[in-house]
Each structure stands twice: as C-alpha cells, then as structure tokens.
Amino acid sequence: MARLLLLDLPAEILHLIASKLPNSGIKNLRLTCSFAQVVFRLRFDRVFLSPHQRDIDVFCQVACSETFRHQVVELVWDQNQFCPGEVEWEDFQFDAFTVLESYELATEMVRFQRNRIAKVGCLRSDDFTPFGGINMPVSRIAKIHTYVQIRRETNEERNNDSFALEHHINRFPSLKRITISHSTNGWLFEPYYETPQIRSFPSGFMYDIERSDPPIEPLWNGFGRIDPSEYAESTRAYGAIFRALAGAKELQLEEIVMENPNGVNYGLPIAFFTQPLALDYLNLVELLRRPHLRRFDLVVTKWGEIPDNGLGPHPPATLLNAALGKATSLTHFSFKLTTFYHHPANNWFPLKTLLPINRWTNLRHFELAHLAVRQNDLANLLGGLPQSIRSIELGFLEFFEESESLAGLLDEIHERAFWSGRDEMNRPRLGISLSVGQCASRSIAIRVDAEIETFLYKQGMNPFRGSQQPDDVESGKGTERDVFNPEYEWPRDEDFDWQVEIDRAEKRLSRMLMISEGNLRRIEDAVSTMEVDVEAMRFEENSHGW
Q1: What is the bridge-based pairing of β-strands 295-303 and 268-269?
Q2: For a designed S-S bond to 108, which of 187, 252, 339, 505 qualifies (C-beta 3.0 to 4.6 A apart)?
Q3: How many CB atoms lie within 10 A of CB 243?
Q4: Gyration radius (Cα) of the chain, Å
Q5: How far, CA to CA in Å, does 331 sit from each of 103, 358, 385, 425?
Q6: What's the predicted TM-score (pTM) here?
Q7: Which one, of 478, 507, 508, lies nearest residue 494 by Cα?
Q8: Residues annotated as region Disordered (predicted)?
Q9: Is residue 198 within 8 Å of 76, Cβ to Cβ?
Q10: 3-state secondary structure of 202
C-alpha cells in the first residue's frame, strides 16, 4: 500500500495542521523542502516591544519586513522587569535570601499546580532538589541579570523603545489591538507571553516574577502636589503609547487593553486624571474619540489618599468621566481600580460620576474589579446599563458597610428584576470572581456564573447564601481558574487545602536555605565583581545565544 506523505495532503488540511503548531514547529517544517516553505507560513500576528534590547531589535526587524508586517494585528508592550533593579552591596545578603525564597516558592507553585491539574497529587516535602542543582550557576544568572538591566536602563534613558514605536507604528496597517501587559513573565519557566527577550534567555535562567509599576509610594508630595519625577517614571510607558497612537491617525485601532490579572499591582496612576491640559491626557482623549475603537480595558492605581488641590472635591473623577464619555463607540469596557494604603471610605467615588454609561449605547460587555463599592450604588449602575449589554463581570469587590455583601447585591438585583423581562437570548450573563484565600496563589480565583444565572432567571438559590461568609461560596459551587493558565479550570473543592501545600513548600524552602550557604557565597563573589563588559556580553548573546 502506498504511503501518504504529509505534503500529499490537501492544502486545507495542511493549513489546519499549521494552525495548531507553534512557530518553532513551523520553522522546522519549512526546513524540510522548498514546497513546505510555500505551504507553511510563519505567523506574525503579534509583536512585542519593551525597553529590553532584544524586543526592540525584533520589533524593528518585523516592521521592516514586507512579508511579516502586514500580518501584525496586535502589539504587546511589555512592562515587566526581570530583576529588582540596583542592589546596594551592604544589603545584598538579605536580598539574596529573598531572591532565593521567591524563586523557590514560585517554582514550587508551578510544580504543584501542574500536578494538581494532572490529578496526581502534590510533591512530597522530601522530594527535594537543591537550588542551582538543575539550573544555571548563580554567578552566571547574576551576570546576565546585570547585563540585561544595564541595557534596559540605557534604552529608557535614551527613549529608544518610544522612538521605535513612533517611527514604526504606521508600518503595521492591520494593527487592531494594543496590549499593555505586566503578565509576560507568568510563572517562573512558564511565561505567559514568550517575548523575544524571554526566548533569548538560556535554558534554566531564573528571573524575578514580581509585577508592579513604579513608584511604590504616593505620587503626592507633602504639599498635596504631584512629584514631577515620580509621575514621569510612573507614566512613561503609557505616555509613549498614547503619543504614538495619537499621531498614527491612519490606523483603525479597535482595542486598547491594560492587562491586570488578579494580584498584579500596576496601572495608570490616578494622578494622570488631575491634569486636564497635560499632553498625555489629551492624547488619550484623542484615542477614545475615534469611531473604530470598540474595546477599552482601563486599570487605574491609587496610592494613598487624594488631596484636595482646589480643582473640586474629586477632580480625577471629573476628568476620567470626561475622557470616557468621548468613547461613544465602545462595545467592551473594563475598569479596575487598585488602591493601597488608605481606608476604603476615603475618597469614595459614586460610580456614575466615574463611568458615563449613558454614553455607551452599544455596550455588550461590562467589567468592574478591585473597587470599594456601596451595594445600592453598584446595583443602580448595573440597572442603568444599556439594552445591548450581554455580559457583566464583577471581581474582587470590597463593600463599605459590614451589612453589604455579594449575597445582598444579588438579592437586590433579583428583587429589582433588571433583566428578567427580557427573552432568554438577550439576558446578560453575570459572573463574579473572588479570591480563593490568603494562602492561595494570587493568580488563582473562584469564578461563579452558572449558579448566578440559575438564581437570577430560573428561581434557583443565591450561591452566596448558606456559606459561612456572605462573600464566599460553598464547596462545589463555582470553578477555580488560573489567569496565567487560562485553558485550565477545575471545580471548587474544599478537599484541596492551600495552607497544607504552602506549609509543604515552606518546609522545603527551609531545608533549601540550610544548605544554600555555598550558593550565597557564589552570588556574593559574582556581585562583588559585577563590572560587566557590555560589549563582550553583547557579542556572546548575538553569537552564541548566551
């Protein structure tokens, strides 16, 4: 019987096969013969840009390629850093223990998450591999970290990433989406996005997975005014993106997305919305008024309390509302407000003063997360959403009053029958996400949706009634999901005890630290002589891939 060769298959089947392969697999197929080079084409629907040199180089090369630049529909701006920045020598021993701990715990989380998904149980506490035993030497890691950070800081000082974006943005005529992400690192050794910089690291290279925007303290100085240097650092990336996009008037951009998985503390500082004449704010307004814009996911970070600077009781709310009111073509809107170091009752914003929902007549998806809310105020906002709404997401909400809760919110929505009169196809689907618990990974959350739909439309029980807390659900209700592994989800099961798993990880960590003295000495030796020859490292990176 004659053998059927791969390339004898119809073109439709070959294209289907290629759609299931990563680019690395397609590259290998293309090397087999000239016909495969014609049939199997590399996918370049997404490009990455960041202050890291490798990302800048690849971005510019794709922009200059007549073959690939027309395929790009998404640009991901990577906000991650791979190391915590400059480390003072006298503090390094403490920092080294912290780094070792974060690497080991993060790796442990990956391992027992993977094992849990595979239903083979978690690692035993005696299943131990010393730090560095299967990975790169610590001195080598420190050297690469320093080299990468030096080049990143140089590019930030010279604005090389911003210039690359402004110079090449118009060379992507099919560009539809801009994503500003702090999620590229994902889990250690399991990146959420495989950026060119991450792909360039050697096997076993360990990097920091902390995700946050600078600064880590309020932007306001002691006189209630914005600190210019801190503000510039905190808004640098956003300003560069808004400026480049505002100047690219030929682009028909449809989506601007600020990614903010649970537990990732970053976003556009709320001070951004206190300066009505600032160029960055005006550029954002210009983007939002464009008729092709369909989706806007906004993340705002508020550090501390907002002082009264004479512009009104809540000037940020006024400017935010004014900017969002220009986006009349939105069909998808998400708003997340991350707050730190303040009592939730301070600087409260009524939701309708923030969000001009009456201007979004075509809105189909609406999301609120990480806000401190009043139950009745939120219910009024949801009831005022347009007839076009089809899905609503609420996540990680905090209520001002002890008497208010998710259970009470659902009861109020049910009693007021906002959507019960609609036919089944036009009823919005409401989903609520909440934290698994303090001991669980920050990226894992409980999502409740099917039970809510049954309660609102099919005379079911309130899923938040009957549990010990009115903001919690009983075992067996809802599902647990990991934002860094979106294809994985599993039923809510109280038999899995996160505290037990953390105890095992900490026990394993303590044993690791007891024998890590040699590794710490190696780190100390590496850092004490860390005058990296940048040119030599660049040659090694380009010639040998590290």
Answers
A1: parallel
A2: 505
A3: 18
A4: 25
A5: 40, 13, 12, 17
A6: 0.80
A7: 478
A8: 463-484
A9: no
A10: coil
Residue-wise pLDDT for 414-451, tens only, equals 999 889 888 888 999 999 998 876 555 667 788 899 99
Give 491-513 pLDDT, tens digit per residue. Answer: 666 555 555 655 655 555 554 44
Distance CA 45, CA 165 (A): 17
| Residue 69: other Cβ atoms inside 10 A | 19
**Element at 133 (helix H, strand E):** none
Q: Which of 367, 464, 469, 378 is nearest to 416 (CA)?
A: 378
Joined together, the tokens standing for residue 477 give 């209700």
**Looking up tokens 């790796």, which residue turns up?**
107
Cα 185 versus chain centre, distance: 9
How far apart (Å, rounded) are the C-alpha atoms in residues 467 and 455? 15
- In DSSP terms, 394 is beta-bridged to 368, 432
**Residues in Cβ contact with 199 at an 8 Å cutoff, skipping those fewer than 6 apart:** none
Instruction: Identify residue 508 by its one-letter amino acid code.
Output: R
Q: Which amino acid is at 88?
A: E
Q: Are strands 444-448 and 429-435 parallel, antiparallel or unpaired?
A: antiparallel
CB atoms within 10 A of CB 214: 14
**Which amino acid does the sequence have at 396?**
F
Nearest to 84 by CA among 70, 72, 96: 96
Q: What is the 3-state secondary structure (H, E, C) of 69-117?
A: HHHCCEEEEECCCCCCCCCCHHHHHHHHHHHHHHHHHHHHHHHHHHHHH
Q: State phi, psi for 325 to the nearest 5 degrees.
A: -65, -20
What is the SS3 string spanning 330-377? CCEEEEEEEEECCCCCCCCCCHHHHCCHHHCCCCCEEEEECCEECHHH
